[in-house]
Design brief:
Blueprint: E1 7-9, E2 16-18, E3 22-27, E4 33-36, E5 44-49, H1 52-60, H2 63-68, H3 74-89
Antiparallel strand pairs: 1-2, 3-4, 3-5
Amino acid sequence: MAKKIPLRQCVGCGEMKGKKDMMRVLKTTEDEICLDVTGKKNGRGAYVCRSRECLQKARKNKGLERSFKMSIPNEVYDALEREFENLEAE
């Protein structure tokens, strides 16, 4: 039997994709927002496609705000975009 691939919905474009093809954005118990590269940290996770466009869409349509039920300051989005750029550079 084929192994089932866990699907997650992108908070930017709304597409369903495999968990491995996406970036997990994490809200920790201290209400910090960060990228969870391993996908295994504790906390509430939301998923974004590995493209800058989707991160910008999530910023526009407040996808992360809805997922985490809290307002997210622009600095957090800027930090996420920087982390994205670092990952793309690797």
